[in-house]
Amino acid sequence: MICSTLRNLASRTAGSTASFFSTSTVNRTEKLWENPWKYAIPEKTKTLATVQEVPVDWSFVERLMPIGIVPEVPKHESYPTPSGWTPPTDAGKMHPYYVRRRPDHLLPLYLERKRDLLNEKTLDFDYVELVIVRNVDGDVFACEHDLRSFLEEKLGHPVASHVDELKGRIKIKGAPRGLIEQFFYSKGF
Question: Cα 178 vs. chain centroid, distance in angstroms?
Fold first, then answer.
């Protein structure tokens, strides 16, 4: 059974190739085996695709893009404003470190909640709030030393801090954000 199926298949393929070469335009003076690819691959008529430019309304995309230019510092009648904001002063340039403000002209202070030690009475974890100061350029360790000494003087207890010099960040544990803001505003940042 298998042998008869193979014979039928071989006879069909032999017949189809013979009919292909008999119907194709083979030049009788040229031998087929001298250039077999000439007759096996069809000729390419067009290789380039057509391109059509479609007009697009980019106004919907442009309003989602961030503002490329930072707006000017707003002018107020008196400082600090009712929210406690003050603009940067020239005194901030006199220190060995500099704290760059965010594009909305606020100090780069962020809150982070981390899991702390296990409470043995309730068998639940306590959480602690950390204040992260970002965008510190220059001598980050001098900034951390000045900030820690200011906070310890105001609070009356030691404050834990961690410096990430490569990223220009300082993490502070045990101090409120408002007091840290007050320190940077007093330095002129």
Answer: 30
Beta-carbon contacts of 80 under 8 Å, excluding residues fewer than 6 positions away, are 86, 185
H or E segment and range at residue 138: strand 136-138
Confidence of residue 157 (pLDDT cuts 50, 70, 90): very high
Q: Residue 108 pLDDT > 70, yes or no?
A: yes
* Structure confidence by residue, pLDDT tens digits, 134-154: 999 999 999 999 999 999 999
Count of CB atoms within 10 A of residue 151's CB? 23
d(CA 120, CA 108): 36
pLDDT at residue 182 is higher than 60:
yes
Angle, CA 138 vertex, CA 134 and CA 144 arms, to 5°: 60
DSSP code for 47: -
- Name the pTM for this structure: 0.60
Q: Which two tokens stand for residue 130?
A: 């950390």
Domain ranges of the chain: 2-40, 90-187
Alpha carbon distance 150, 147 (integer Å): 5
Q: Letter for the amino acid at 113?
A: R
Instruction: For residue 53, give the 3-state DSSP assignment.
Output: coil
What CATH class is the domain 90-187?
A: alpha beta
